[in-house]
């Protein structure tokens, strides 16, 4: 929330409180409103901390907050309707009020244009519209395209995501992800490095994923949580 509407809300609250005191016969001096700027600044800082970090504290989940924390790097498998499974990584950037997704394969990367996390039928659903850009050396056979994805989130502390995707190239398929790190990978190589460092997951990833991970990681740029 920006400072202007927050200032209006605090001022309205202070005015209502002052009117209530006056109604009970209390005298309210103008100095009553003197701390207004400090209160607004304090609330602004608290809201920023809440949106970016505080809401993710484990003691708040699953009650009073049911919204799952998906922030981190996820290892997965992309299975086209026609074709062989491919290794893929999903990176979720999440605050209390926003969510963004990126995916990396050995040949391309995608970024969400719009994304939402909503509760549907008792589970949360992560849905996104994305733009995929293949690496330049592959664009002669794989053009830039757009698509949509939805992933079902199971439980308040999810360890896996399942769903499907479809694109404007008339292709579609299934997706399955498992969390490997709370850190945010920046590309396929750094995500693969996180995958190798992660403990074995249950259920374990498909062997086709593990065999496809690059043995060398020339880039290991990883954003800290």
From TrEMBL:
<feature type="region of interest" description="Disordered">
    <location>
        <begin position="196"/>
        <end position="225"/>
    </location>
</feature>
<feature type="compositionally biased region" description="Basic and acidic residues">
    <location>
        <begin position="213"/>
        <end position="225"/>
    </location>
</feature>
<protein>
    <recommendedName>
        <fullName>CD-NTase-associated protein 15 domain-containing protein</fullName>
    </recommendedName>
</protein>
<keyword id="KW-0472">Membrane</keyword>
<feature type="transmembrane region" description="Helical">
    <location>
        <begin position="32"/>
        <end position="50"/>
    </location>
</feature>
<feature type="compositionally biased region" description="Low complexity">
    <location>
        <begin position="196"/>
        <end position="208"/>
    </location>
</feature>
<dbReference type="Pfam" id="PF18153">
    <property type="entry name" value="Cap15_CD_rec"/>
</dbReference>
<keyword id="KW-0812">Transmembrane</keyword>
<feature type="domain" description="CD-NTase-associated protein 15">
    <location>
        <begin position="67"/>
        <end position="179"/>
    </location>
</feature>
<keyword id="KW-1133">Transmembrane helix</keyword>
<dbReference type="InterPro" id="IPR041208">
    <property type="entry name" value="Cap15"/>
</dbReference>
């Amino acid at each position: 929330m920006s400072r202007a509407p927050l200032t209006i809300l605090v001022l309205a609250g202070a005015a209502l409180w002052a009117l209530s005191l006056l109604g009970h016969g209390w005298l309210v001096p103008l100095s009553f409103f003197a701390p207004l700027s400090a209160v607004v600044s304090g609330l602004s800082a608290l809201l920023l901390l809440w949106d970016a970090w505080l809401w993710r504290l484990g003691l708040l989940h699953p009650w009073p907050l049911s919204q799952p924390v998906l922030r981190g790097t996820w290892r997965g498998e992309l299975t086209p309707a026609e074709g062989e499974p491919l290794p893929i990584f999903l990176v979720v950037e999440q605050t209390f009020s926003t969510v963004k997704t990126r995916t990396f394969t050995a040949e391309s990367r995608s970024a969400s244009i719009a994304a939402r996390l909503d509760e549907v039928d008792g589970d949360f659903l992560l849905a996104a519209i994305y733009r995929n850009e293949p690496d330049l050396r592959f664009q002669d056979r794989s053009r830039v395209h757009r698509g949509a994805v939805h992933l079902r989130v199971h439980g308040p502390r999810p360890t896996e995501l399942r769903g499907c995707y479809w694109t404007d190239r008339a292709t579609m398929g299934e997706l399955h992800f498992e969390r490997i790190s709370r850190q945010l990978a920046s590309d396929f190589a750094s995500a693969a490095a996180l995958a190798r460092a992660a403990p074995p997951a249950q259920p374990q990833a498909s062997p086709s994923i593990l065999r496809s991970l690059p043995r060398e990681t020339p880039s290991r740029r990883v954003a800290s949580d």
